[in-house]
User: What shape does this take?
Amino acid sequence: MSYAELDAASKRVANLLTERGIRPGEKVALSCANIPQFTTIHFGILKAGAVVVPLNVLLKAREIAYHLNDSDATAYFAFEGSPELPIGREAWSAFQAADRAAHFFLIGSGASVDGVTPDQVFAAAVAGQPETFETVQRADDDTAVIDSGGCDTCRRVAARPKRRFSATGIAPA
Assistant: This one.
């Protein structure tokens, strides 16, 4: 993937988020393996001025729901996974149990996750989005990424302070 392709793809994600009403500063969770969509979605979230909440792909539905609620995520992107690692099924179950998350996007075909609608399948959702977007400007000390502690159990995460990452480095939350 070239820089130009990455830029265009991440602008489509930013347009999708703004079209769905995600505002600067809102949290957007992301559960995705190391595939190209991780990068395009991550940068798209940042271009929209939102905050990335990366979640470990090994989390189960209960843990994901905890992180969605704890971070106040309003949108959630999740990789479908495989029969051996059903990330999408766990993510969909967690999304339905979460209090605030209003938008769900499944990265994959959607065939293995019952209940996901066609407009929630990532490829279809971004397909018609423009490849132009003016990046939302944020202050240097605004939060860009929240370390959710996604690889820890909910109990240990709740017991330790959160960290936030900004353009100027790590600062206590």
